[in-house]
Structure prediction request, 353 residues.
Amino acid sequence: SCFIIRPRQIMYPLLLAMAVVKGFAPSHFLEDFITEHKIVINFWNYLDRMSIYRTLLNATSSYIYKTESKIMRNVLWGLPLQHGWQYQTGRLGDTANVNNTKQQSLDPTISPRSWWACMNYYLCAIPFLGAVDAGLFNNFPHEIELTQPEEFPSDFCSGVTDCKISCPEAMAQWKAFFENSRQVAEQSSLNNSEEEGIVSLMWKAHVESIRIALPICSKRLNYLSAPERNFGRNWAKAVEFLAAAYFPTDFESVNNFQMYLPPRRLKEGDKAPNIADFGMEQNRIVFALDWLNKANIFSVGHLLQLWKKAMCSEEGRAAGRRLMQNMVDDSKFGLRNMIAIITELTKNFKCEG
Prediction:
């Protein structure tokens, strides 16, 4: 029988872990969307987007992570877990009332006015269509169509051909991720170097999706409070730092990291690290992302370039991941610490290749 997402799971998306069902072909999960010999997916429904993530998890787990014990190491877990956090914290609904930061009941409707939902479209629809273009569902002979919202319809492509025209580089990067990861997995069981190579391809595609989405989604920033608007921009830039360090996106790593993220949308008057209803680590992450982006802007992008240079080796990336953890754990950790450590990393580790 097919895996069914129940109402409780809308609020607790981590239960999507149950979705990796052994014994089902990836195309099995697309059958729910068939309408008159066409697959029509409502991307403005939280459950439908989660179902697409479920499909991608099953498709990649079937050839990369072949044993049940390795399924939770799938590098795509970061995408649905982030989307679940966005839903739980009220970031996918209509944010016109900037100070109403609570989740509205169990409504799975996604608003086209939501900046977070717009950004996520390019991290759900584009990876999925990239997988389709890579041939992951060749045995499923149905045309695929993604529904467009009534508001801002031109901001969203609706199929493989359409998306290859509007965002060709992002489509190419996701296609390359699926093709190359399958090719590597078919040759042998993954060693650490090959698994890191898959993580690298995923992050490259992820960053490109965000790059193409930022200008398209920018008009929606006006629907957010000033603190939430800044947090969104800071988060988008922080992804480039995470990507350069090959931050792990398996289930456990992302699930643990998300405990540090804001439990609601930020409202007017919120100022980290002194937001009363946020935990200590949640305050720190909001504060750290803010000064990280400000420092990068002040340096005219040189901070990110220095970081990327320091992350050019396996040892450098491991040190970079520890550095990011220190940013959350240590309240006294500051920009000087970061620049000093990055500078030292660029001296100590030789670049690969």
About this structure: The radius of gyration is 20 Å. Residues 192-217 form the longest helix (26 residues). The chain is about 50% helix and 5% strand. Residues 2 and 28 are 8 Å apart (CA to CA).
